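Subject: design request, 419 residues
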């Protein structure tokens, strides 16, 4: 993302934050001054007296400075873009920010909101780069957009093959972070079997169903634009990326798109098919703050969690799972039972921090429990039913280490061998 765009977006987000903090402080003053009972309903309306006037003045000043800053930054955009090129550190920060509050960035039209693009990596065999920050991902690949724009199609270093390998990253991540400890599952499979890796970059703070629908549309366009006939599409989804893939398949089948006919295999790596206990804990922390009028304004901090994060409470992948409910107030699992599409080979990999001797008492991988990653559920209608030979649990393996673990890599090579 260009420097001028980042600076504009960061300034807007800073002003949004001032408004948010001002509101919390005003509500705290209002509630405390009303001296309510320790538990019960909080007062409503603005803060009384001079305090209310002060907070209104702050809002007015903040809005005026916001408008002035937007005008002042516009002439600097070209200079900043030319003298401060983007780097991997910036990409990582923007990806994390999109995961935390990407829904707000999208709704407010903030330039920091990440648009969905399909991308390829060029220079996979180049020597290590001396560029500042390149060591962060231990890669010097150039990530080039291939859809909606076709920048990579005309690049002399890009060669399209008939077997597309689609890779969807997880929450707060981007496509560069598929490379970990000098290993990239996509590049490994490309070298081993001749796949053409295509990486999805998306705003992981938006609802999973929104990203799934957009990915389905992008893939339909990519297949039409691909410079050679597409023989097959194979997909890898890491963490949230697996849910986005499931959502995309559902959307494509609903709209009779053609690309699912080319989809032969999907591997879900550490995907929380039935949600993550970490997000469920975040919900209860937010709700606990709301029990007292004296802490209720602080519950707004819990509501900062993005739509994408709240989807991970139970693993929502279609609009109907969340559309009629306030996910900050309702903890029930409203998901429509949705099985894995037929005619496609589905595989699941789970990690656990436990030792092999733990048996059925396995712990999570730090974020996702093996039961969720393998699609197991007490209600039979929600059990995904991966075949026994298409699921694996690796012990003493944490969530992020799945991206570089040799056991995971060997399993992928076994499952995704081209016939």
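Subject: RE: design request

Done. Sequence follows.
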């Amino acid at each position: 993302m260009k420097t001028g765009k980042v600076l504009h977006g960061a300034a807007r987000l800073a002003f949004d934050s001032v408004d948010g903090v001002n509101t919390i402080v005003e509500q705290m003053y209002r509630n405390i001054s009303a001296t309510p009972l320790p538990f019960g309903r909080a007062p409503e309306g603005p803060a009384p007296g001079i305090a209310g006037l002060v907070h209104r003045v702050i809002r007015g000043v903040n809005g005026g400075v916001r408008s002035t800053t937007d005008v002042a930054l516009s002439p600097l955009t070209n200079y900043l873009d030319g003298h401060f090129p983007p780097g991997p550190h910036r990409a990582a920060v923007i990806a994390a920010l999109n995961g935390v509050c990407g829904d707000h960035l999208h709704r407010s039209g903030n330039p920091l909101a990440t648009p969905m693009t399909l991308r390829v990596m060029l220079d996979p065999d180049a020597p290590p780069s001396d560029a500042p920050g390149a060591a962060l991902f231990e890669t010097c690949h150039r990530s080039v957009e291939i859809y909606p724009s076709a920048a990579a199609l005309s690049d002399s270093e890009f060669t399209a093959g008939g077997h597309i390998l689609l890779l969807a990253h997880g929450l707060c991540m981007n496509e560069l972070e598929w490379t970990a400890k000098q290993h990239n599952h996509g590049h490994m499979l490309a070298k081993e079997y001749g796949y053409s890796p295509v990486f999805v970059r998306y705003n992981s703070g938006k609802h999973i169903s929104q990203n799934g629908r957009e990915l389905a549309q992008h893939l339909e366009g990519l297949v039409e634009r691909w410079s050679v006939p597409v023989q097959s599409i194979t997909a890898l989804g890491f963490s949230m990326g697996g849910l986005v893939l499931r959502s995309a398949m559902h959307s494509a089948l609903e709209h009779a798109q053609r690309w699912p006919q080319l989809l032969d295999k999907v591997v879900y790596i550490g995907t929380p098919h039935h949600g993550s206990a970490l997000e469920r804990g975040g919900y209860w922390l937010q709700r606990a703050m709301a029990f007292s009028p004296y802490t209720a304004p602080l519950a707004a901090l819990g509501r900062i969690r993005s739509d994408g994060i709240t989807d991970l409470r139970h693993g929502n992948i279609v609009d109907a799972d969340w559309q009629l409910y306030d996910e900050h107030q309702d903890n029930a699992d409203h998901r429509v039972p949705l099985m894995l599409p037929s005619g496609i080979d589905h595989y699941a990999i789970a990690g656990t921090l436990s030792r092999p001797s733990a048996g059925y008492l396995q712990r999570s991988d730090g974020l996702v429990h093996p039961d969720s990653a393998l699609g197991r559920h007490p209600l039979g209608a929600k059990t995904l039913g991966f075949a026994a030979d298409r699921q694996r649990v690796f012990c003493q393996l944490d969530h992020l280490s799945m991206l570089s673990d040799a056991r995971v890599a060997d399993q992928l090579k076994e499952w995704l061998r081209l016939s």
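The longest helix spans residues 3-33.
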